Amino acid sequence: MAELQNDRFLRALLKEPVDRTPVWMMRQAGRYLPEYRATRQQAGSFMDLCRNKELACEVTLQPLERFPIDAAILFSDILTIPDAMGLGLRFSKGEGPVFDKPVRTLADARKLYVPDMASELGYVMDAVSTIRKALNGRVPLIGFSGSPWTLATYMVEGGSSKTYSKIKAMMFDEPATLHHILDVLADSVIAYLNAQIESGAQAVQIFDTWGGVLTPRDYKTFSLRYMAKIVEGLKRENDGRKVPVILFTKGGGQWLESIAQTGCDAIGVDWTTDMDEARARVGHQVALQGNMDPCILYASPERIREEVAVILEKYGHGSGHIFNLGHGIHPEIDPEHAGAFIKAVTELSPAYHAK
Fold first, then answer.
1. In this structure, is residue 68 part of a structural domain?
2. DSSP secondary structure string, 154-195?
3. What DSSP element (H or E) covers 146?
4. Which of 66, 77, 187, 218 is catalytic?
5. Is 17 part of a structural domain of the chain?
6. Which of 130, 173, 345, 353 is most buried, with most CB under 10 Å away?
7. Of all residues in the chain, what percent carry a pLDDT higher than 90?
8. Of these residues, 8, 11, 20, 40, which one is catalytic?
């Protein structure tokens, strides 16, 4: 593999010194870019795009051609694992993901299995190795997965939900069934992320998008416990380098201390927790990633720059901060505004890393 030319993202994740704060955006390869929309049309469907390693590579690299970002993230979807379990995933217009065979009973749960990474999810590993080769050491490649709880919400609800009533009914009334589902998912995520690391991913992130809908007790029992199991099962070194692990629970600011105890290297922070507070609470243990409200990108470039300055000041001096949005970039954002955000971080952050 080619020597890494820009490793500030990996260094910051391990709290090693950097010249400026590294920056990337969740969903940086996506619908806000006209070139992405053109490639997606060429692919035919979203999952066809994920399954075509050349096109997945093309869209992964698109934001790097526009912006001086410090990491690429594999173009894929969090629902690849449940899809490989044969639950009949499809994406319906206006509704998002739908599973034709939702998991609602203990009998359904017992049919679940850890997919074979080479045959059933080999297309993801092919994409990882293709992207890593194409990057040629330019920036590190991030692999990712959904968290067991977040994947389970889609599998039990049968798609997106506003109330999580089906999975919460199962959690309260049939906890053993849900624990079975989450165990199989945790084992699947361990195998999936380790296969991504072996294929060339240099850091991995677990997206716990819906962990924030739980009570503190239920979060620890049904979400964090399984992410901790995954962290413990991951390969943490490859190619002679450490492979950092980022945990991101949207709405999880009240549980930062508990998340830091999992052994992860970094915590993703959304915009509902200030960076100075997050750093005071756990910044001595882990790096922090975030945390600009994605909606700031609807504002003027001047306003975006002001917000970047505020967040940099809140984190303060020294390494251990990876600048990011507090969640994925919205599809309607003007790419010029995303560029203004990246430019502001690259121009304003060196002052916080001066010797």
1. yes
2. HHHHSB--SS-HHHHHHHHH-HHHHHHHHHHHHHHHHHHHHH
3. strand 141-146
4. 77
5. no
6. 345
7. 96
8. 40
Whether 40 sits among the annotated catalytic residues: the reply is yes
How far is it, in rounded angstroms, from Cα 158 to Cα 325?
Answer: 28
273's tokens: 């927790």
In a domain, 322, yes or no: no
Put residue 276 in one of left, alpha, beta given phi > 0 → left and psi -120 to 50 → alpha. alpha
Q: Which of 27, 51, 132, 305 is catalytic?
A: 27
How far apart are the C-alpha atoms of 103 and 236, rounded to whole Å? 32
Active-site residue, selected from the candidate residues 32, 36, 123, 154: 154
> Which DSSP helix (H) or strand (E) runs through 237?
strand 237-238
- Domain range holding 90? 31-274
Question: What would you report as the CA-atom Rg of the chain, rounded to the nearest whole angstrom?
Answer: 19
Domain assignment present for residue 247? The answer is yes
pTM above threshold 0.85: yes
- Report how many domains make up the chain: 1
Q: What is the mean predicted confidence (pLDDT) over 84-103?
A: 90
**CATH at 86:** 3.20.20.210
Rounded Cα–Cα distance for residues 95 and 109 (Å): 25
Mean pLDDT of 271-296: 98
